[in-house]
Amino acid sequence: MNDHLTARLQWLTEPITQRWRGSLLQLGWRLWLKELRGCLPAWLSLQDIPEHRYRWPLTAPVVKPAGEARQVLLLARDAVLVQTLQLPPAAARNLATVVGYELDRFTPFDAAQLYFVARQERRTPTHVHVTLVAILRERLDPILNECAALGLHPHAVDVDAGEGTPMGIDLLPAPLRPRQRPQGKGLQRSLPWLCGALLIAAMLLWLNDRQRVLEAMQHSVREQKAQVAEVQALRQQLLTTRGAAQYLIRRKAAQPPLSALLNELTACLPSDTWIDQLEVNDGADVSFSGQSAKASALITRIKGCHSLENAQFEGVIQPDAQTGKDQFSLRAHLHQEAADAPTTDTP
């Protein structure tokens, strides 16, 4: 059952294998793998399984090599039949089957008498160039039996293309092919993990870059917010200063000038009264002191001053023995007017 399944799978994959062999894609793949092996560290173990070749006929028993190794039996070129064929392009879809049907035309034997390999070399719009390598079963089977007796159980049977270089084919019957990791299997198994690791690394790098950009944007936003807050604080400070300045300007404009206040006091106070001290504070309070012949009548006289209001004595009126007048001290409040109120100079 297993042999039948293996043969079935081989029959299904043979067209793909024939198209792959000798193609530009295969050449590019080999070059890429070579470059990849040179770039990767040794601990990844991506090197292929070592291959040991044994020329037929064997002259001594074979000692199994230590470790995992691929054993290949190398036949002489004159031990096989090698032909170059030109087939229609449609034959490349299932090359092994097509050649198997036509073996009796290409060789003196039919398919039941031969082990053969048909390898596609190159393809043109009109033809497919194929290399046919065949050997009689009655000749290869005794060779394999003798190899087994000498301790050699080959993983493949290849043909010497000249100067010890194998042709790169396998004439070993499918039922006799041992189950082992084929050449390059370590690389094939490691490549998905390597690709996955590279993909995860790329995703992490992308996320790290996005995070870095986000942090830079957040830092820029914080700086801009701080600048806006600073501008708003300066604006508020400017508005407060401006409001205070305007308030002082209005207060100053609402108060009468000091010269006008002195002129008005001169007109309101009687001629027998003089002022020793006059003080006007920021609260628009006016305090003055002096001497007068009739100090008790000063409140009535000050009411005639339009610039002063709420006049009242501070302390008591005391007579001065030297001048014979009364010493007084008064406090009043400046009358506040609107800054835009009309004055006596306004026409």
From TrEMBL:
Domain of life, source organism: Bacteria
Gene3D superfamilies, alphabetized: 3.30.420.380
Alphabetized SUPFAM superfamilies for the sequence: Actin-like ATPase domain
Residue span(s) of domain GspL cytoplasmic actin-ATPase-like: 66-161
InterPro entries: ATPase_NBD, Extracell_DNA_Util/SecSys_Comp, GspL_cyto_dom, PilN
Full protein name: General secretion pathway protein GspL
